Amino acid sequence: MSKVKVGLVQMSCVKDKQENLNKAIEKVREAAAKGAQIVCLQELFTSLYFCDVEDYDNFDLAEAIPGPSTDALSAVAKELGVVIIASLFEKRAQGLYHNTTAILDADGSYLGKYRKMHIPDDPAFYEKFYFTPGDLGYKVFNTKFGKIGVLICWDQWYPEASRITALMGAEIMFYPTAIGWATDQDEETNKDQYNAWQTIQRSHAVANGVPVVSVNRVGFEQDGAMKFWGGSFVANAQGKLLYLASHDQEEVEVVEIDLNQSDYFRKHWPFLRDRRIETYAPISKRFIDED
Question: GO molecular function terms here (predicted)?
Fold first, then answer.
């Protein structure tokens, strides 16, 4: 398959978990009606972004994977014949939780999961309180519509993660994410932060010759203190923007990606071929000094 249609679901969330799941399913249906073959939902789409506080009650939002949400989405994937990328709060065992994305193939089968590797701990993003770092390594999934790599939010900032995923054969990289602006910031800071976020991900597309799809939530949360900035986008294998969402509206968009472009760009910009892998051993150090 040389071309694939990807659907992005950028939406706001409410407190009720079932209401968010129902809303996401309706938007998956909308994307499928527009021709989507792979539909990506945003990070932790079944809830408000709860990591703004350290609250033990929020662990009640977690569920097993596979579990109730993947069961519901599997039925929808099978009915519509679409692949669904679903980011969920995973309860692995008592007291052990992950930020995890499940992949459901177009026949409804559960292909597996990716557990978020890089976990932030910033003001209003206290994820280390909730999530154990992923231990499954980086992953690619052979779906009906192509081999996809999935990373999650904070992973976006790390070229090592995207490189490894690309080297594993990912034809498209997907980033479910949840990131926003503190509403007491000035507009210049907001613009700089968003541009940095978009730029680093587009650079992953350029460096690896792989299209990148980034899907973010939108809307005010945290009692109005946080505006999730939307801005979901699709970049081709040369980093060119094929679609850019608004910062303040829910959107369901379908974008066609030409997978053959990866071969073209890798031939003309042979970054993978020219890698000096024998010189890269120091990258595994925390910092290159005498200690």
Answer: hydrolase activity
